[in-house]
Amino acid sequence: VQLVESGGDFVQPGGSLRLSCVASGFSVDYAIMRWYRQAPGTGREYVTSTSIAGNSTQYADSVKGRFAVSSDSAKNTVYLQMNSLKPEDTAVYYCNAGVVLASKWNYYWGRGTQVTVSS
């Protein structure tokens, strides 16, 4: 199982970015996919989660209305579209997958991608 994030960049306030999380070793269609972020000197913060099979998506209040999660089954990829970015969105963004293997839940992390929002 592997998760590889990409798409992080330096962007001005009000700008947009789209992060990608390419998964291998399992299907994103049957996993619970989450995004977290971690700003310098802080703990890892939950951003959003989606269950494609369960047709369910949730967002942290801090990003609701600005961020949107989506997926592409053919590419086995989950995306995080981030709009109206603010300096406080600056963080390393991590993809997390909850996958049932051998009848139990297993959780996997990517290495993260840096997002910097600054003027």
Structure notes:
The protein has 119 residues and is mainly β. 0% of the residues lie in helices and 56% in strands. The protein is built from no helices and 11 strands. It has strands spanning 2-6, 10-11, 17-24, 32-38, 45-51, 56-59, 67-72, 77-82, 91-101, 104-109, 113-117. The mean pLDDT is 96.
Using the alpha-carbon principal axes, give the shape.
globular
Number of helices: 0
Structural class: mainly beta
Largest sheet: 7 strands, mixed
Radius of gyration: 14 Å
Number of strands: 11
Give the mean pLDDT.
Answer: 96
Q: What is the terminal-to-terminal distance?
A: 38 Å
Low-confidence stretches: none
Listing every helix as H and every strand as E from the N terminus to the C terminus, the arrangement reads EEEEEEEEEEE
Question: How much β-strand is present in the residues?
Answer: over 45%
Quick overview of this protein structure:
With 119 residues, the chain is an all-beta fold.
Q: Key features?
A:
seven-stranded mixed β-sheet; mainly beta; 119 residues
Topology diagram in text:
Elements: E1 2-6, E2 10-11, E3 17-24, E4 32-38, E5 45-51, E6 56-59, E7 67-72, E8 77-82, E9 91-101, E10 104-109, E11 113-117
Parallel strand pairs: 2-11
Antiparallel strand pairs: 1-3, 3-8, 4-5, 4-9, 5-6, 7-8, 9-10, 9-11
